[in-house]
Globin-sensor domain-containing protein (Hydrogenobacter thermophilus), 299 residues
Amino acid sequence: METIEELKVHYGWTEEDEENLAKVSWLGEKYKEDFIEEFYRYLENFSDTSKYLPDEEVRKRHKEKVKGWFASLFTSKYDAQYLRKLYRIGETHVRIGLPPHYVQASMNFVRNYIADKLTMEMGSTLEANSILKSINKALDINLDVMINSFREEELRLYLASGKYQRLLIENVRRVSWFFDTFIILTLAVVGVFLIFWIVYEIGLVLKGDFPLERGGLSILGSVLVLYAISELLAEEIKHIRGSALSLKVFVGVALAAVIRKILIISLSPEKVQELITLSVVTLSLGVVFWLIYRVESKL
């Protein structure tokens, strides 16, 4: 990892930047209470905040630490000790499994918050602009160190593994990539087949080989299944990019298939028993879908 001197060179940190922060050293202390309230309102945008801040005691400790970091942003001496402090913050994020994206997004909130407060206090003056540039450099240094701690911790854990463990990890990753690629290609092929099938059904209806009412319901059901497959394909792509796989998508595909079946047999009075059975299945799948949605929204 770079030293604090190297970071200062990379970000063009000068004595003027230190002087600029000293001019607004009161800013962090004045607004830290308002900042933490606004920051927690911002955290509500993340669906799984409760996963990392599960109870009031954890939230209380977290608020105090964030307020301390916010105030020190303007008053700290940017030296090796401050660098170690930032690195420890990053290590804490790694331990609780916080995605780096959350840190980057949160830093953008902090940047905008400070810019608004600085403009409110000093207006759009040349001095205010100069101070804001220095604050942005400080935030960039903070973000750089925190994100690097993620990468270094992951690398440390990887290197700590034995030779055969690393070989196994790499091979499993390759196999997993092959499986994911195969699944995406298969879903895409199935989607294409469904499009041809829908076009074929439309052709049958137009030629009069298929009753309009039955044909319309069959086409509607096929479109519903195609939509479900499209959602499943999109979910798999998100999974490859690092997102968690949502179980409700699979239930959605099953729902679409059952509903298509119901639409087709709904015109056959002699299949009342089968229709009732499928209706019960649809209700059950709907309840499962709702339960999964409730659970996933709380994570």
User: Anything to note?
Assistant: The mean pLDDT is 81. The radius of gyration is 28 Å.
